[in-house]
Amino acid sequence: MAIDPSHIRLTPEQQAYIARQAERNGVTWESVLGQWIPVAKPQKTGEESAFDAARRLGLVGCSHGDPPDLATNPQYMEGFGDDVNGSSAD
Question: Distance (Å, rounded) from C-alpha 80 to C-alpha 89?
Answer without folding.
Answer: 9
